[in-house]
Design a protein that fits this description.
4 helices, 3-stranded antiparallel β-sheet, elongated, 4-stranded mixed β-sheet, alpha+beta
Length: 172
């Protein structure tokens, strides 16, 4: 038996594949998810297939050019990192809803601010937050984390009118 395997074992190292050193190929690839000249925001909505599963959606933060401002037609549309939370509270679009996404956050206008500090991301909303479902909390936490840093591992604290959630991390 060993005699039959010996020729195969001797030929295997000579199959023509040579070892190489690491080849430098430049920076990692990046993908632009918003149209040119506009800023994108990553929002997290709940999948209808699982109440605990959040899925990211890219939305344009810049005001629409066709004059349709939706809930922000009065030129009060927020900008910067806070815009992501405003868009989150608007809920999923018709297409997102049709794709099986929903929100566990109350809909409507909510004043929100997001800032990055030495302690992590701090989000403030003018609504109660301590009694929100776990999915709703994670929607806020994940959206706030990526709005400020594009890093879901950043520590986030969400402060509402009834207290605070966190500091905690996005679970997605």
């Amino acid at each position: 038996m060993l005699g039959a395997l010996l020729p195969v074992l001797l030929l295997a190292p000579g199959c023509g594949i040579r070892a190489t050193d690491v080849v430098e190929a430049g920076e990692p690839a990046t993908v632009e998810v918003a149209p040119a000249g506009q800023r994108g925001a990553l929002l997290y909505f709940v999948s209808s297939s699982s109440a605990a599963r959040l899925l990211p959606v890219v939305r344009t933060v810049s005001p629409p050019e066709d004059g349709e401002g939706g809930a922000w037609a009065d030129d009060t549309r927020p900008s910067g990192a806070s815009a992501a939370l405003y868009l989150l509270f608007e809920g999923p679009t018709r297409a997102e809803h049709d794709a099986g996404l929903r929100t566990e956050l109350p809909s409507g206008r909510v004043r929100a601010a997001v800032e990055l500090s030495a302690e992590g991301v701090k989000a403030t909303v003018d609504m109660p937050v301590t009694k929100l479902s776990q999915a709703a909390r994670q929607q806020l936490i994940c959206t706030a984390a990526t709005a400020s840093t594009a890093d879901r591992t950043e520590v986030v604290t969400v402060t509402g009118t009834d207290g605070a959630i966190g500091p905690t991390h996005c679970s997605v």
